[in-house]
């Protein structure tokens, strides 16, 4: 498929700020962050509110029993989504100094969630960290010194964790060691833009939302940009491969600004596009 053949198809424009998309139960589930809710978007465009999250939803992922582990940003807690509501399982406030952000969950339930390190707009910039939640529910600091850790993804064999450092404007990788420990941090790409949500494709390339550049960028494992797609709104937010065979790329974006967003003044949307390759890894 050539790039000229590719056409965006809008599923919905009735969101506020769609983050952390995941393919789950035959729909695209998202954190509609500034509408304080977990929502699902069907491939037919139908939007459904799955659960309100008063402390603002952040990243989430699918556990081995097919339930969702969800991070709430403002109170820095993890909960399990069941029966339309969240049941708290971990309080991370003593391990974190900022807001909880994006998350990735491995096949066995090993989970990683980002702590921004500070509260944007009200505190000075400070380094963030990645919190590890093991399948037994125990929590540990897995990595520190990150410049606003954001989107995360695991490779197919779950041996490498990729992290978008938004304020660092780089893509960083860690080797996943025994018991989920993160070792060997290295910079994969100095990006020149602030990345947000990420996902992997079947060729082990990393797709990133270039937030203020209003585009989605694909780079290979050496950091070379090999593809890009213009965002249909002013902010590119996140991306994920969806569908039963994960052959379709879903793009989350929003028409807003840094001044308008905290006031909930944003028009979020989800679009899909065929890019000639299927998804890989764990988003």
TrEMBL record:
Tell me the residue numbers annotated for binding substrate: 101
Please indicate if the UniProt record lists tRNA-binding as a keyword: no
Tell me yes or no: is Phosphoprotein among this UniProt entry's keywords.
no
Q: Which cofactor does it need?
A: Zn(2+)
| Recorded GO MF terms | hydrolase activity; metal ion binding
Tell me how the cofactor is bound: Binds 1 divalent metal cation per subunit.
Q: Which domain of life is it from?
A: Bacteria
**PANTHER family, A to Z:** LACTONASE DRP35, LIPOPROTEIN-RELATED
* Name of the protein in question: Sugar lactone lactonase YvrE
